[in-house]
Known about the structure:
about 15% helix; seven-stranded antiparallel beta sheet; single chain; Jelly Rolls; 2 domains; mainly beta
Amino acid sequence: MQELYPMKFNPIYKEKIWGNQRLREELNKETDQNKKVGESWEVSSVKNNISVVSNGYLAGNNLQELIEVYMGDLVGDSVFDRHGLEFPLLFKFIDADDVLSIQVHPDDEMARKKHNGRGKTEMWYVISAEPGAELISGFNREMDQETYIEHLNNNTLPDILNYEKVQPGDVFFLPAGRVHAIGSGILLAEIQQTSDWTYRIFDWNRVGSDGKPRELHTDLALEAMDFKYYGQYRTHYTLQRNEASNLVKCDYFTTNILEVDKPRQRDLIELDSFVVYMCMDGKLELIYDEKNSVSLEKGETILVPASIEHLAYKPDPYAKILEVYVQQGENKLQQGSS
């Protein structure tokens, strides 16, 4: 069996009523100029949306087939033990030219009971944002179910939500149950559990492409929602150049950010997990097995198999990348150094 190597995948594009052309214009995606493309699924094992390799001798094989053949060599033994043939994470780029619906996602327990699936905890990294752009994360005051329902019925739900002005580099961690929405004028990277369960609460009274209001999931959202007021929703972190700086660490994924302007080594041997790199800016070469290399530039995503134990980064001349893997064992839920 030939050795595994860092793999790129064909993006899966999703047309959305709130999308536009930033994926093409800023991330060099080959999207249809005549369509409002809102999402590029970079690495996915969601049913009917399974990523297909685009580079190397495995090109044309999909992610599910690779896990069936390579198992722990691809995803890591500990990851394979926990998740089996399902790749546990979904990676996206999202272009919000208009505000998304206000929504919430179920946790693992609810998703298992209602859908025989997994919950959806996720995070956002803002790549670019128009002046004044903002998003919604959580509530802006102490909240309870009765007050929430009152505002929902009175069409004043936006009044009780927490709005955050955003700029490039901002990070938001969104555990299952947190009400949220991406605002207009924002391009971001999203890392989440492999799940496509979304409960739409409010859609700004707009209609879909068929001229009808999009479906709402009021009762399911009510059951899924975390009403607690947290006060701080933005993730604070310290960026150290040429070092891996942690953004999020939870039971589903660990995400670091690396801003590099000189060559450096990265030892992956202790992770026992695949590593996914998403390039936020610039360009670099990933050197593996000491002699082979693959390029990664802004807007690209690559999966490094668990069997690759050492990497070297060679920026050209600068790059900013997200590094994502699945931590071994159970971790307490954390988000940066809030």
